[in-house]
Amino acid sequence: MTIDQLLxxxxxSNLATLVREGDWWFPLDECLHVLSIATVFGSILMxxxxxxxxxxxxxxxxxxxxxxxxxxxxxxxxxxxxxxxxFISKAPVYWHNPQFQLKFLFMALAAANMLVxxxxxxxRVADWDDALPPPTAARQAGALSISLWIIVIFLGRWIGFxx
Length: 163
What we know:
This protein is mainly alpha-helical. 81% of the residues lie in helices and 0% in strands.
């Protein structure tokens, strides 16, 4: 089975047909997706602004991380589920859309940035938890994260104008 055959099979599933042809399923799911993404970005932004030294300067990085990141992960799971439901409604169209592909590339870059930070600068967070400014590696990871997520959001919005 080719990828296009699989995408067509997905697109013709009962759920995909319901989302695509129903009067309110697609807009409801899209609304939930946007709210999930806003929560993901907002919570990541809080953390990243602390890393670059522009906000929450009186909070320890670990304290802020422990308070905010559980919400990030819950919202991210919701965004994945709602995004998958949007995707299946026109799977072949989205799969071949350059903006869709770029969105996932930049999400992968954001994930790589997070992993580099987590296994790099964050491993020594006890040394700089309350420090201002944070170490250069932490500031760079925060600034890069903000930039990458803004691009992801821009590309996600662009998809709606190109499908």
